[in-house]
Amino acid sequence: MQMQTTTSDCERSGETPCDSSSAVSVRAFHPWITDELFADTRRIWSKAYGRVLSDEEVVEILGNVRRMAEAIMFSRRRRYQRCM
């Protein structure tokens, strides 16, 4: 037996998260993720993937981008400190 899922219009559009409580619960664990950042990330990456991303996927993408930025900043700081 296959489960049926329903998709609302806003989920199909990929514009914003339909349930703002999902973004709120995400911010409880990741206070640096604003509602706007969450919505923008979902909208942009959903277009790239050709489907609406789940809350978990959005959080994973944001976490990966943050870790990459931190690694780049750390590397640049080390390089700058060696030059001094």
TrEMBL record:
Superkingdom of origin: Bacteria
Region annotation (Disordered) ranges: 1-24
Protein name: Uncharacterized protein
